Write the structure tokens for this entry.
Amino acid sequence: MLNPSLERKKHLVTLMGVALVFVILVLLDHSGMVNTYIRTILLQTCFTIIVVTSLNLTLGFLGQLALGHAGFMAIGAYTSALVTKAMVNAIKAGQMAPLPNVLMFAIGLVAGALMAALFGLLVGIPALRLRGDYLAIITLGFGEIIRVAIQNIPAAGGKGLAQGQAGQALIGIMKMNDLYLVFWIMVLCVAAMYCFVRSKFGRAIMAIRDDDIAAASVGLNTTFYKVLTFTLSALFAGVAGAIFAHRGTGTLQPNDFSFMRSTEMVIMVVLGGMSSLTGSICAALVLTALPELLRSFGENRMLVYSVVLVLVMIFRPAGLAGRYEFSLYRIFFERRQKAGAAEPTKGGA
């Protein structure tokens, strides 16, 4: 049985660690070490962490192979971008009172997340009755359908909305590349997913992953838990898509969410370790930074990138973290307590 007091201490230590990382980030930013290029990479890392950990809910903790996760990210991106564009246009036309960019971004982000969750629910109800290759094919098809549909919707191209043109990149998107804001959004999303997998819902979906029939035999509504997890996974993918849409380039195009994007997400989940949020975070950090670090290799950098992936899967087939979750409390307090308890025994001997 979990000790509530101990759990609170663990969460407090984790929060202190996150706050320390944020302070270091602020200090580096104010010292001038974080230039525009590094800021772009850090922003990309933040939304990649969100989308990879969200996919791990379905792929790792639930044990269902989904290959269309980029589709939910696309829905979140385009919904949020069109919502913020509509608000900006309404403010310019005098139809709406001026709002801070942060508030408009928050409204767009919530709208994108909810729209992605709605599509996750609609897709999950029929699709999650299947398993394995069949589910993979359905989700893959869904991701491609979304991409092609967006490409043929006039409101999602050109200047968007009433002035949109099908088949073009969406332009004129509000820029909201506040690194500090995106950092805390990422922290909140990962914390929410961690709480979910540590709750009774998380234990239920892991029981379904380990043995679907046994879980159903003890009274678990397997369809409900599968759809719930799939919907939450889509919701957080929508959050990542909203951040991606407003990352600062001002443009968005359907090819940003191709099948290759979904494949990259699956690779990151497997590389980091299925059923490990810590592993997903590490994999997102490594695989986002690695291509940039290998730019000195020129055209051969993707070859080196591939070799690194192959070597990791040979020597760490369970992923970088396996099912391990990193804990500051375990490192700094539990080990010290064990060492203190072992000292009298050692002296008595």
